């Protein structure tokens, strides 16, 4: 049985509708969504930050997993129109109670996160050229044993190559590129 089949009918319908607009909103693939869902549930991950909310497709999957674990998602989006879409989709799918949306420039929001804001997983799916900046801004807030997952590292290989080279320089991270549809970089923070 597919994971989506375990969700209520409204969630299934909403996700299927959003998949039709995947290329318009640069959403992750269903395969990547299912991977992240299982990764969060199986790892008992509780605190996640997402850079790039878009219309909420990935946030629904992350939110469903975090709801199972008693966790919380903080998601960042610049565009108000996308936030409105995401809020409606989160509400329809019953995950708005575990999701906080922050509107604005992701680098600025990440830079001014409180010192005690810590996450077990950061999921980045936004401006590819800024992945290095996001990495450096997220690192102080990522728990040891936590993960940094970045989408599109195969589909946008040239744009993200500097980030992949940068994270490989850090001995306190182990990073692997998973051959999911757009390519997912998964870095584990092994030391502080």
Overview of this protein structure:
The chain is an alpha/beta fold. It has one domain: Rossmann fold (3-Layer(aba) Sandwich). The protein is built from 8 helices and 7 strands; from the N terminus they run αααβαβαβαβαβαββ. The chain has helices at 9-19, 22-25, 30-42, 57-69, 80-92, 106-111, 131-138, 157-168, and strands spanning 47-51, 72-77, 99-103, 119-124, 142-151, 173-178, 184-189. β4, α7 and β5 form a beta-alpha-beta unit. α3 (30-42) runs parallel beside α4 (57-69). It is globular and about 45 Å long.
Nutshell version of this structure?
By secondary structure, this protein is an alpha/beta fold. Helix content is 42%, strand content 23%.
Biggest sheet record? 7 strands, mixed
Structural shape: globular
Task: Please give the count of helices.
Answer: 8
Query: How much of the polypeptide forms β-strand, as a percent range?
Result: 15-25%
CATH class call: Alpha Beta
Instruction: Output the structural class.
Output: alpha/beta
- N-to-C terminal Cα separation, in Å? 39 Å
Would you identify the CATH architecture?
Answer: 3-Layer(aba) Sandwich
Sketch the topology as an H/E string, one letter per element: HHHEHEHEHEHEHEE
Mean pLDDT: 97
Helix content: 40-55%
The structural domain count equals 1
Low-pLDDT runs of 5+ residues are none
